[in-house]
Amino acid sequence: MKFMKLMVITFVIVVMSSPILIKSAVAQSCIPTELMPCLPAMTTGGQPTKDCCDKLIEQKECLCGYINNPLYSTFVSSPVARKVLEVCNIPYPSC
């Protein structure tokens, strides 16, 4: 449980302190903090919530930007995160 808290705190600090915005044609809709409902599923391998899947669908076009950004890539590229995308019926993008 301490590990999970540490992961959440680390993720929030990285996201909130990052001056770098995701560079994308749809940058206005690429808001990493909106994926917070997915953090437990992406870090522990739990079942993603409906809210998580809805947020991932909303930001589907942003996934390549997240994958290519070193601040977010570990959260989106991990095998657990790929499983979350699969459960939410979102194909893993080929960037």
Description:
With 95 residues, the chain is an all-alpha fold. It is 54% helix and 0% strand. The chain contains 6 helices and no strands. Residues 19-27 have low confidence and may be disordered.
Question: How would you concisely characterize the structure shown here?
Answer:
With 95 residues, the chain is mainly α.
Order of helices and strands: HHHHHH
- DSSP summary, beta strand count: 0
Fraction in helix: 40-55%
- Given as residue ranges, the uncertain stretches (5+ residues, pLDDT < 50) are 19-27
Oligomer: single chain
Broad structural category? mainly alpha
Query: What value does the Rg take, in angstroms?
Result: 12 Å
C-alpha geometry: globular
What distance lies between the first and last C-alpha atoms, to the nearest angstrom?
Answer: 34 Å
Number of helices: 6
Q: Strand share of the residues?
A: under 5%
Mean pLDDT: 79
Pfam families: Tryp_alpha_amyl
Protein name: Bifunctional inhibitor/plant lipid transfer protein/seed storage helical domain
Domain Bifunctional inhibitor/plant lipid transfer protein/seed storage helical: 30-95
InterPro entries: Bifunc_inhib/LTP/seed_store, nsLTP2
